[in-house]
Write the structure tokens for this entry.
Amino acid sequence: YYLLAQKSINVLIWVKEKCARVSWIAKTDDDTVHQIWEVNSLTKSLSSTSLKIACKNKTDPVIRPGHEEIELYKKWAVSHEEYQDDFYPNNCEGQFYLFNREVVVRLLEAFERRGRVMFKIDDVFITGILAKE
């Protein structure tokens, strides 16, 4: 599970290097279904130069080790050393988000500026932490 952030960064690098003529990038989970006509409408409503990530967004409190309310939440427990704030920055729910190539470039630049340091929760890392930076 904790390698998903690395996988997401690798995908961004691949898109930057191999997909020069691609206008839009959609990240989706393999167990979700989307109405392609709605995605098409969304791309038409957004500017291809926009620096926005289109998604259902959220702001979650950080779950600390030992304070998980449900056993399932243990994988999302984060120590103060890993993340100091009590809430994550606004970020996307992971099942789907859409952005353009310029956003890819900016996310990778933010990743480089932070010394390539990863955060283990991929959607928070990519669409929250890096997007905020």
About this structure: The chain has a mean pLDDT of 90. The first helix runs from residue 4 to 18. The longest strand covers residues 91-100.
